From TrEMBL:
Enzyme class: oxidoreductase
Cofactor dependence: thiamine diphosphate
Keyword Oxidoreductase tagged: yes
Domain of life: Bacteria
Protein name as annotated: 3-methyl-2-oxobutanoate dehydrogenase (2-methylpropanoyl-transferring)
EC annotation from Swiss-Prot or TrEMBL: 1.2.4.4
Gene source species: Flavobacterium beibuense
Keyword vocabulary terms for this entry: Oxidoreductase, Pyruvate, Thiamine pyrophosphate
Transketolase-like pyrimidine-binding domain residues: 467-641
Gene Ontology molecular function terms on file: branched-chain 2-oxo acid dehydrogenase activity
Amino acid sequence: MTETETKKSLSFDDFKAEVLNDYKIAVISRECSLLGRREVLTGKAKFGIFGDGKEVPQLAMAKAFRNGDFRSGYYRDQTFMMAIGQLTIQQFFAGLYGHSDLEHDPMSAGRQMGGHFATHSLDANGNWKSLTQQKNSSADISPTAGQMPRLLGLAQASKIYRNVSGIENKTNFSINGNEVAWGTIGNASTSEGLFFETINAAGVLQVPMVMSVWDDEYGISVHARHQTTKENISEILKGFQRDEDSKGYEIITVRGWDYPELVSAYERASVIAREQHIPVLIHVYELTQPQGHSTSGSHERYKDADRLTWEAEYDCIAQMRKWMIENEMAVEEDLDAIDEQAKKDVLEGKKAAWSAYANPIKEERDELVNILKDIAGQSPNKVFIEKHISELSAIKEPIRKEILITARKVLRIIVKESGKNTLSAWISDYTAKIQPKYSSHLFSQSDKNVFSVSEVLPEYGENPEEVDGRVVIRDNFDAIFSKHPGTLVFGEDCGHIGDVNQGLEGMQEKYGDFRVCDAGIREATILGQGIGMAMRGLRPIAEIQYLDYLLYAIQIMSDDLATLQYRTSGRQKAPLIIRTRGHRLEGIWHSGSPMGMIINAIRGIHVLVPRNMTKAAGFYNTLLETDEPALVVECLNGYRLKEKKPTNLGDFKTPIGVVETIKEGKDITLVSYGSTLRLVEQAAKELMEVGIDAEIIDVQSLLPFDINHDIVKSVAKTNRLLVIDEDVPGGASAYILQQILDEQNAYKHLDSKPETLTAKAHRPSYGTDGDYFSKPSAEDIYEKVYAIMHEVNPNEYPELY
């Protein structure tokens, strides 16, 4: 045998070994799906969606996936995660059982149902790992197509790293922008607007994104003819295909059961995206879904006999097996042995996962049972306590809920007995130990959280310059971009004209169009750009032109950004700053202040409401020192108002979660924020004319809210409280009131009913009169305070009406 023949022989043997290993992974994944469904149906797991039928194309994708790459996918990609070495059999089942220990379920510590995958971008202290030295998966979310906007940002980060110099720690996040962002989606979910918005944006931006569509012809029970024009997503996207004259996509179609063609397609896509930064769409068709959509139903209800027969024949693993035998990669007996061993391995992994999940809970149950037995032995209510002990002990597979219910019910029985203190202490200790498993990391718990930054006051010279507020924000952005090379801003009209209010005037010319750039009218993917780039170590500022337009992006903010640290138990972060402006506009569509909706939808994101541009600039400076996402709402009518220009631009910092008393008084506490404060100040001056001395507090930050509890100190002095807000009744004002009364216990100091003054329930009518009759005015504030004081002293303040 010649040397060349030996090399060819070895090469074939290596290839054969690789194919056999791929087959093994596919079979293991399938067995996990089959056994996982049974675990749900027997009650050990709550719900399941599995990746059966998609195994072979996911193997091909994994082959093209490199260190530094990112996946942004959906909940059927288990084979891919196994193939890149980021998911074991035991971890698969730990996720299915909802194991709340990150060591066992590294995907989410039981916070998401199985099938939602993530890798760890951060260490246990919240510090970045070297992402270029590992294969990465951004944390999945369930909302269909919700993974798409983030995918755009993950891909754009490579573009930034390739074209922007001077970024700190660059090699931890990118090697010359060679990383590809890989997206996956089911064919039915391509009907979502987020899919089309992202596809269009990626084509415009020309980013290294490879988008895989797993097409099995159905969306749950609904056939593709009801989902997609021509029943074919690649057919209707042909207009995106690049050609000699215009940029666009490379569109590839490949059958989902054809192993060699899939491997070839994915290698080709990887080269195009990685080297040329051209997005690629891979339409993987003729796939199957052997168990139907999920454990909640059977696909036999909506697939006819012909379809089921075809699916059995063209199951991707069956076709791969057939191809391997035909091409002498293996014989039936070899593959049968792999199949049999896979069943054993999956069964053992399942058993190990269940033991690891169930045994600690049983130990916790037994600990409580022993305590209750001791208490029962000394209690006149022994018979009742023993009944609870017996019921808890009889539960074969207890959960923590059942343990704590038993303890709390027994506590009621012995509330007047000596054993009460022992049981009460156990409940408190147990809750303190267990609750964080389900509640931690809504916000950052690292040493870079927002509370780690100390206030730095603006500094002014002897004769401070009076300038428009927009100049303060503009010049502060200039300082930011100079100081932080990884910072960039993008949004509608951000670039060439320097935003609609000139807060970015001249910044694109100075820092280039990769760092200060325009975006199309597509708010959801503007948010997604920011999320993805922040997940890859950049410091993006995503601008949503007006507060009203935030509604286009609220789902992405709520389901993805706000939950990211929580759903990864602190192992991923996206310190994105969202910039917008609002308040005191005119007309139904340009005057919303839906703050109550926003703050309740995006818990996990800080919401900052500065009253002027100096305060806003200080918030940006603070946030860039932290590792948390935030929304900053600038006052639209503040850009042309005069402010003193600080001399320490880029360095002064507004504290987050801290209120500011902007006028002291003794008769009533007035609490507000943003543009409305100017009306409050005007009303307070007029109230002074009749002897009413109001104290005014600027909230500044809605999330977090008054961490030092300064408002209750004011109420303790004035004994009266009015919250003024231009949101609808029961909106942000109700939240603020709840924080002051429930959290700060200010009710103890009140001599009058705490009240709110809000906008009307309807959207404001157009024009200045529409604004006046729809939102709180200075006169409304004056009269509301006057009425409160009338109740206190009717002789001094007789009724106005």
